[in-house]
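Quarterly update, task 2.4: 4'-deoxy-4'-aminopyridoxal-5'-phosphate-bound model.
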Amino acid sequence: MDGGLNDNDISKVIEADKAHVWHHLTQHKPFETSDPRIIVEGKGMRVWDQNGKEFLDAVSGGVWTVNVGYGRTEIADVIRDQLVKLPYFAGSAGSIPGAMYSERLISKMPGMSRVYYTNSGSEANEKAFKLVRQIAHKRYGGKKTKILYRDRDYHGSTLATMSAGGQDERNAQYGPFAPDFIRVPHCMEYRAQWDLSGEEYGQRAADAIEEVILAEGADTVGALCLEPVTAGGGVITPPPGYWERVQEICAKYDILLHIDEVVCGVGRTGTWFGYQQYGIKPDIVTMAKGVASGYAAIACCVTTEEVFDMFKEDMSDPLSYFRDISTFGGCTAGPAAALKNMQIIEDENLLENCVSMGDRMLGNLQALMEKHKVIGDVRGKGLFLGAELVSDRGTKEPVAEKDVGAVVAECGAQGVIIGATNRSIPGLNNTLCFSPALIATADDIDRITEAVDNALGKVFG
Ligand code: PMP
C-alpha cells in the first residue's frame, strides 16, 4: 500500500489546503509555516500520508470513529449500490435502509424503540434536548425544562450542546449560552472531590446530582444528559455503584435519562453500547461516530416507546407532534453503511476482539506505569483507553501541555498516531488517548504501547 503522490501533485494539494481550508481545532498562524499532514489512503489499522509514510492509527481517524478500520470495500459497495438506486428522500417517506437499520439497531438495544436520523453527534444531542423541552411543555405546563449535564462531559459544538458543555475553556468566547442547562459534578475518582473510594465514592458522586436537583427544584428538571464513559474530558470510567444510584435518582424525580453514546456507541467499549456495561436503562440514547465508522455521515437519536408515545398524545393540538426535520437525515447512504458496519462487527466477532485487545492494552499501559512515574493513572473500557500524565504522583500536578504534545509528536515520528484530551484545558490536557479500531491485533496493540514507551522515555527521561 502506498499513499504517496508525485511531487507535483503533493505541492498542488498542499497549496490548495493552505490557501483555502479552515481546519478544525486549529490555530492557523503557526500552521501556515508547519509541515501539513495530508492523509491520502487507509487500509485496516493503517493510513498513509502524502509522502507515502505509513502510520498505525491508534485513534480510529483522530476522534474515535473508524471502528471497523479502513478500506472496507464491502461498505463502499453497499453505499454505491444504494446511491445508484436512491440517494435521498426526506420527510415522512421511508427508505429501505432507514427501516432495516432501525430494526437491526433496536435489536441490540433492549428497551429502546424508535430511531430518529440526523448527521452529527451534536445534532443528535440537539434533537434529544428538543424532545425534553417539548415534553416539558406538553406534559408539565412549561416546567421541567432544565437539562443537567456534568462537569468535564462534552456533548457537541453547536450552541445548545455547548450550553451543556462541561469544559469551560472550550466555551470561552462563544457565550451567551442557552438557558436552563445546569452543571452537576463529575464522578472522577482519580481527581476526587470527596475523601471516599470505590462504591462509597460512586454513591457520593451520584448524590451530588441529587443535591443539584433538590436545589433547582425537582419539578423544574426534565433530563440528565451523561456520557457513560467520558471521552474528551479525560477518558473517565465511573466508580462502582454510580450508575445504579443515578438511575434511582432519575426514577425518583421523574427525570429522563439521556445517554450520550457518540463515542462509546457501536462497540467501542466491548458491548454494543457503553450504557450496557453498567446496566443502565436510558430513555434517550444518542450516537454518531461508530454508527457507520465514518464511511457516511450518520447519527441517531433513539428513544423508548414511552417517550415516542408522548408525541402521539393530544390530537386536538395540531402542533403536538415532534416538529423537527434534519435535511440530510433523509440520506440513504448512512443507514445502508451503518447496517453493513453492524454486520461486519458481528461476522468478525469484533466485540469479543475489543474486549480481549482492550484487556491487553490496559495490561500494557499498566506495565508502562511501573516503568514511567509520569503516568499517574490508566483508565478505560474495551478499546477506549487513557493514560493521565502527571509530574508528581502525590500532588497529581498535570505535566506541561507542550510535553503532552511532544509525546504525541514523538509517537507520530515513530509511525503511530495517538491522541490527547482537549489540550486547551488546564488540568484536563494531560491524558493520552487510545481508541484503535476494533480489528486491532495483539501485534498492533504492542506496537502502540511500545511507541508510547519510547516516547515517554524520550520526553521525560
Ligand atoms: N458527544 C460526545 C461525547 C463527543 O465526544 C462528541 C464529539 N467528539 C459529540 C457529542 C459531538 O459529535 P459531533 O462532532 O459529531 O457533532
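Highlight for this quarter: Residues 350-371 form the longest helix (22 residues).
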